[in-house]
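Hello, quick one for you while I still have it in my head. A protein chain has come my way and I'm curious about its shape. Can you walk me through what the C-alpha cells say about the fold? No rush at all, and the record is pasted right below.
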Amino acid sequence: MGRPVEYLRADAARNVHRIVEVAARLLGENPNLAMADVGIAAGVSRATVYRHFPTREALVAAIHMQAVEQGEAALQACRLEEDSATEALRRLCTAWLDVAERYAFAQLTTQPGTGFDEPTRERSRQILGAPLRALYERGKAAGEFSPTLSTEWCVRAFGALLLAGARAVADGTLTHEDAPDAVFRSLLEGLRA
C-alpha cells in the first residue's frame, strides 16, 4: 500500500524547505557549489534537487523567497505593536538576525548572480518594510527615537546593521548569541542621536 497523497505532499514540502535552507548556507560558503552537493548535504538525491529547482537561478530565487517568508513569520511573531517601540525593535533585531544568518544574507548579497531579483526585492519592501517603518514612526511619536532622522534612513540603517551582524557571525567576530544585542545597541544609539 502506498503513502497517502497528503503525506507525499508534506514530504515534498519538507524536502524543498530543507534543500533551500541547506543551499543558502552552502552557497554562502561556496558560490560555485554543484547542485548535486546541495542534494547530498540536504539528504536528497540530485534528481530531487533538479525536480524542484531545474537551474541554479531557480534555487537562488527560492532561497530569497523562503527567506522573505521566514522574515515575515518572524515579524509577526515579534508583535511589534506590543510594548515600547524600543522593546519591539529588540525582538525584531533578534528574530531577523536569525533569519539573515540562516539564509546567508551577508554572503549571498555580495556574490554575483545571487542578489534579490526586483519582484522579490519589492515584495520584501512591502511585507517587511512597511511594519518596520510603522515601528519607527511609533518610536518617534513616543519620544523613544530621534524625530530628526528620516524613517527611510532608519530602515536603511537597520538593514545595514543587520547585515553587518550576520557578517560578523559568519566570520567569527561575534557569536550567534552576542550578535543580536550588538546590532540592537548600535541601532538604538544611532536612533536616539
About this structure: The domain at 63-191 is CATH 1.10.357.10 (Tetracycline Repressor; domain 2).
